[in-house]
Amino acid sequence: MSVIPLVLPDFMLIALGWALLHLLGFERRFFVNAERLVYFVLFPALLFYSITRTPLSLGNASTLLAATFGIMGCGIALAWLARPVLHPDLASHASLAQCGFRFNTYIGLSIAGSMQLAGAQTIMAVIVGFAVPISNIGAVHALASQNGGRALREILRNPFILATVLALLCNFLAIPIPHAINETLGRLGQSAIVIGLLCVGATLSLEGGRQHATLITWMIVAKLLVLPLCALLIGPALGLSIVEQQVLLLFSTLPTASSAHVLAARMGGNGPLVAVTMSLGTILSALTIPLWLALAP
Fold first, then answer.
1. Residue 102 belongs to what domain range?
2. pLDDT in tens, 224-263
3. What is the DSSP code (8-state) at residue 115?
4. What CATH code is carried by the domain that includes residue 75?
5. Single pTM value for the model
6. Do residues 17 and 24 touch, judged by C-beta distance below 8 A?
7. Where are the beta strands (DSSP E) in 128-286?
8. Contact present, 104 and 224 (Cβ < 8 Å)
9. Given phi > 0 = left and psi -120 to 50 = alpha, else beta, which region is 149?
10. Are 219 and 96 in contact, with CB atoms under 8 Å apart?
11. 195 touches 38 (CB < 8 A)
12. How many domains does the structure of the chain reveal?
């Protein structure tokens, strides 16, 4: 598998998104509205379409669920290990903890779809669907542990989760999807990746964060370097197929989601600090993702 051509188009789209905002005069409101479109319409369509394309068994799904729990558990543990090791400012850590385990679904599904491995994008879609509620619980708990009810409401209304549950039901029950609907969902899904990656580029920001350099470094190293090592151990331990191991490894290498800083700002955290960490992680992942995929089984 030639790795650089596999990931280069995605990072070129991210760079284009940055250029559209900062060099070519596109307004920030344009990207805010575009990201809402992706979040509520286009990406749920992609998840549903991807999951229903390939028949799944309960056995395979349960194994992928266990693998997802393993990866997310390691990420959350690494993020919280920073407290006793670094003794950071607690408010800053609460904001940055999510950067150790949240993931960019746009990059993941795009690269998985380019891997030319049977079922790779479906496997990634299932892992993402399982991981979204775990990451939301971890992120919200870090910012406001007393808001458990609020976290539950957000999870139950999350369009990614709703699309995943509905798609899994249709898959397991072999419910046929009308051709016209299936084609429409497929075309919406194709739009999701391109627009989503452009929005990722538009959110990149490297302003500020110097006083928290150690904590930022911890989260980026945990996310981009340590978590993939965990994936290399978890995949074979659970008996995943080679394709499943490769997709799990890809999932573990993904940088933090660009929505992390939005959540931090909305819940009274340090949004700009999270934006810096997310941006640095996204830029560095252009180097680390090819490295890890070259080591894939």
1. 3-294
2. 999 999 999 999 999 999 999 999 999 999 999 877 776 6
3. S
4. 1.20.1530.20
5. 0.85
6. no
7. none
8. no
9. alpha
10. yes
11. yes
12. 1
